[in-house]
Amino acid sequence: MAAAVRSQVISLYRMMLTESKKFPSYNYRTYALRRVRDAFRANGALEDPRAVERLVVEGQQTLALIKRQVSIGRMYATQKSVVDD
Amino acid sequence: LIKKNNTCVCANLFRSKPSQRHQASPDLNKIKLIKRHELEIDELRPLYMDFQATTPMDPRVLDAMLPYQVNYYGNPHSKTHAFGWESESAMETARRQVADLIGADPREIIFTSGATESNNMAIKGVARFYKTKKRHVITTQTEHKCVLDSCRILASEGFSITYLPVQANGIVDLELLEASIRPDTSLLSVMTINNEIGVKQPMKEIGQICRSKGVFLHTDAAQAVGKIPINVTDMKVDLMSISGHKIYGPKGVGALYVRRRPRVRLEPLQSGGGQERGLRSGTVPTPLAVGLGAACSIAQQEMEYDHQRVSMLANRLVQKITSELPDVIMNGDAEQRYAGCVNLSFAYVEGESLLMALKDVALSSGSACTSASLEPSYVLRAIGTDEDLAHSSIRFGIGRFTTEAEVDYTAEKCITQVSRLREMSPLWEMVQEGIDLKSIKWTQH
Questions:
Q1: Residue B120 to residues B188, B191, B194, B251, B434: CA-CA distances in angstroms?
Q2: What's one GO-annotated cellular component (chain B) (predicted)?
Q3: Among B1, B77, B355, B422, which has the minimal tally of Cβ within 10 Å of its Cβ?
Q4: Facing residues of B243 across strands?
């Protein structure tokens, strides 16, 4: 993977994790963190630049989705879960 | 507690004379109790382990639905303006997403208000359409209440219904099924995955039998769609019910798959403007349909990942519980099952008291639609569970959003509470002493 693309992917990954940590709901938060991490890990060996580009675009759309859903979660927040630290 | 002018009423009670304050007045105790109760109300939410009753909406599903609740509010059946066209386009996209998940053609999907309506439509509709020549319908004893009740209504209309028994592992006997098909059988209805014990029926074999005998096969796949791979052509299924809120979609929407080749005819239940091919009139709720479509498309993407995770978590739960507690029975076949539905019976413990003891875990002791009555579940009775074990069964539901921490917490709480309840149980004491409970002659006092 070209260095520019690689740094773009890493910064996308970091942004997605940062936003996912903001979910007020324990279940959504843990799912988002886990799913983002596992998805990036699974696609880590991908070489084809077009496939990588497609996934990056998808990642950016998902990042926007996470931000919207975090705001909605905050608007309608409730008490913490029993297992939440 | 009524609050006047934003100050607590009890503030007035504190304006007592200095000499009086040293005595613990009854008013002060009452205030303390009230304050403690108020703090308790703001308590932590229990963790959710009841994924068979319903599932939380996936954030991606909510995100897909919201534009249609806010700005794109047109009626999908309005043919004359952009609001109608964009709404219709969204509805058709959703239809294709549902069809792709089960290997069907989009023209074979009818949107309904849920799996209950789909089951009613399929069973009553097919039976009534073919009633002049065919008067027999077959189903199983472990079906969902809506299927059993629809069959009961048909029986009162003069149809003859066969309720097939299931074996002790919850699976139908294929030879018995084949033997019960008569020349005047129009429909056979078997659910793919049972909502109470998680057992998976051999749908391919049943489909083969029905196709060879010329009988329509309907399956209630509400618990199966999106969780295990389903293909209506491989399963030779003619009608299939789908529920939105079991696959992380919205409540209030479902679908019915109706095969076109060979054609299945149904008498519609709901009359009106002829929407959904005349089979289900009424405006299709675009936001809900979009939600169902999104849920199906996400389920298709995530099926492998979710399946591995749910199986791992279910194993973890069962291993933890059975390694610490003796006399725990899993209801339903151990192999032919969906991992995420674990139904355990804890001998010598009463189910309701265990549920109350586990009050910070959301669990169920049977299906939601029958939990109001005091009778033990008819599904457990059908698989031959003893009366007392049927009363002690708990259903653990594991899903996409369950975490290891939640499973560990549930297992630990369960072990502690079952042990505590067993300590209090005279039956358990007798069993520990080696007395066979079945040999006891109980007398009246």
A1: 14, 14, 18, 18, 51
A2: nucleus
A3: B1
A4: B254
Which strand (E) or helix (H) includes residue B343? strand B341-346
The number of folded domains in chain A is 1
Torsion angle in degrees (nearest 10) through CA of B171, B407, B410, B362: -70
Name the residue facing B56 among A27, A32, A72 (closest C-beta): A27
Residue B45 DSSP SS3: strand
Residue B216 has pLDDT above 80, yes or no: yes
With respect to residue A15, please indicate whether it lies within any of the assigned structural domains: yes
Q: Tell me the two tokens of residue B387.
A: 């009366």
Interface TM-score (ipTM) > 0.90? yes
Q: Which residue of A has its CA nearest to B59?
A: A69
Task: Work out the pLDDT band at B75, boundaries 50, 70, 90.
Answer: very high
* Main-chain phi, psi angles of B171, to 5 degrees: -95, 145
> What pLDDT does residue B42 have?
62
Reported as a single tens digit per residue, the pLDDT across B262-273 is 999 999 999 999
* Position A81 in a domain: no
Is B101 in a helix, a strand, or coil?
Answer: helix
Is B369 among the residues known to form the active site?
A: yes
Q: B393 and B351 in contact (C-beta within 8 Å)?
A: yes
Q: What's at B439, amino acid-wise?
A: S
In this predicted model, what pLDDT tens digit does every residue of B20-41 receive, in sequence order? Answer: 444 556 677 777 776 666 555 6
Query: What is the C-alpha radius of gyration for chain A, rounded to an integer number of angstroms?
Result: 15
Q: In angstroms, rounded to a whole number, what is the distance separating the alpha carbons of residues A39 and A35?
A: 6
Rounded CA gap, B308 and B406, in Å? 17
Largest CA distance in chain B: 94
Parent domain of A48: 6-75
What distances in angstroms separate CA B200 from CA B141, B219, B234, B385, one per listed residue?
15, 12, 16, 18
Q: What is the pLDDT of residues B345-369, one digit of tens each?
A: 999 998 888 988 998 899 988 655 5
CB pair distance less than 8 Å for B59 and A80: no
Structural domain includes residue A18: yes
Interface of B with A (CB under 8 A): 42-48, 56, 59-60, 62-63, 305, 360-361, 400-403, 405-406, 409
- pTM for this model (two decimals): 0.89
Residue B8 is encoded by which pair of tokens? 């607590």
Q: State how beta strands B341-346 and B393-397 pair.
A: antiparallel
Q: How many CA atoms lie within 13 A of B43 on its CB side?
A: 11
Provide the b/e sequence for A21-52 (b: ≥16 CB within 10 Å): eebbbbbbbbbbeebbeebbeeeeeeeeeeeb
Residue from the list A79, A82, A83 with its beta carbon closest to the beta carbon of B42: A79
Tokens of B111: 């949107």
